Amino acid sequence: MHKYIENDDYTGKPRKNSPGLLHGGIGLAKKKKKIKKYRKPLNLNIGMIIFGVIFIYVVVCVIMYFQTSHIVRYEVKEGSLAADTIYRGIVLRDETVVSADSAGYVNYYAWEGARVARNDLVYVVDETGRLKEELDSLNLGENSLSDQELAEFRSEIVNFVHGFDAFHYESVYDFKFTLKNTVSKLANVNMLQSMDDLSGTSGADMISRSYAPATGIVAYWMDGYEELKAMDVTEEVFDETKYEKKWMTDNSLLEAGDAVYKLSTNENWSLVIPVEAARGAELEEEGFVKVRFLKNQYESWGETKLLTNGDGNTYLQLTFTNSMITFMSDRFLDVELIVEDETGLKIPVSSIVQKEFFLIPEDFIIPGGNNGGDSIRKQAFQEDGTISIDTMEVEVYYFDSETGEYYLDSSLLNSGDNLYAAESDETYTVSKRATLIGVYNMNKGYADFKQITILYQNDEYAIVKPNTKYGLSVYDYIVLNAESVRDDQFINQK
Fold first, then answer.
1. Within 10 Å of residue 142's Cβ, how many Cβ atoms?
2. Which residues lie below 8 Å from residue 123, measured CB to CB, with a gap of 6+?
3. CA separation for the pair 60, 462 (Å, rounded)
4. pTM over 0.90
5. Are 111 and 218 in contact (CB under 8 A)?
6. Out of 61, 297, 343, 423, which residue is the most buried by the measure of CB atoms under 10 Å away?
7. What are the distances in angstroms from CA 303 to CA 206, 273, 373, 481?
8. With the C-alpha atoms ordered 407, 413, 415, 418, is the resulting torsion angle positive or negative?
9. C-alpha neighbours within 13 Å on the C-beta side of residue 277
10. CB atoms < 10 A from the CB of 215, how many?
């Protein structure tokens, strides 16, 4: 008889009224239950997939962008460049140093840069120093500026502001003394008008007046270069660290024979600048050159003369016949030489490249061809060893009319190739090479070398000859950076 006994799930003991199977007194073992971990189904989000693909694509594009060179085009246009250069030169004048006739305190009447005639009053010497005390006791009134004097003050200030260079800070002191002398002149004018009131006093008896010995421009400073001549200028003269300028101040005490002022009696003056020998020879050949003074942007024409002085260096002397009074307080000046502008096709220097070519005599070039281009007759060998002549079209990059030679691309020929003349059986062995200066034209979608003739260039741009047979034309597109391409490279224009 079979009995079913149900076991308790937790204790393993038989549970009443539960079916179980007993066979031969041995119960069936309880079945063990296996617990499996629940796995979520893989749900693919199509949006996230698309975003991931786009992100990877963008990253790759950014990496490729920074790792590849970029070809930028430049449109050729007409333009000009001024072949100008800035120089610093030393000013030379006819300067006569005037010495004091007597000792005493000097009070200047003529101001710095003023033109005086012969026998005009320049300064007054107070031999005892009592003049100032006597004048202080008088009511000298107020000084006022005339319209002309006020305009000169404004001009001095404006010129200083526009011409100031922190590298030459010493110009501040020149400006200071110029204004100080101008103010002193105004005060001394009023003083001289009051000297009549002192007539007969002991102070007036100690006054001596000094007059100009000749007509000229007055200056109240010395630097030791008053006697310097153009042929004596050397490199050492331009060492401004050793340059010293001494100003004569109003009411200063001088001994008899001391330098009291200087007089420039000639309107002609010159500026000497250091130049390279070749550059100086070109400017001397011109005869005259246009000069712009950086201090006030004034322009004038200077007569040129090339000098080779004792130190072995070359200098250019620029002689002027006007405006000397404007720069009366200056010994050194910065100027810009303005020569004739070069006009042509304006291209950036970065687009210029050199390329090597084979030189082929003109007798071995066949003008024209099936497509209107030039061609050559080249020696070739057949499989059976026989010699044949292949006619192939070539692109000519330049023709030198003086030597009668064409420039052909070196990639089309090899050194040692034999060419046949156009109208005979004469042969020429390819070997001679030369380089051309040019740019890469990109009108056709690939880097096509074009020869150029440079008329003038500076650090950024070059002016090239327009309308040459094998060169550029206005509105052509060229590669801005020649180093970013190679010959015949296809270009995606930007």
1. 5
2. 106, 107, 108, 109, 110, 209, 210, 260, 261
3. 38
4. no
5. yes
6. 343
7. 50, 13, 53, 42
8. negative
9. 4
10. 13
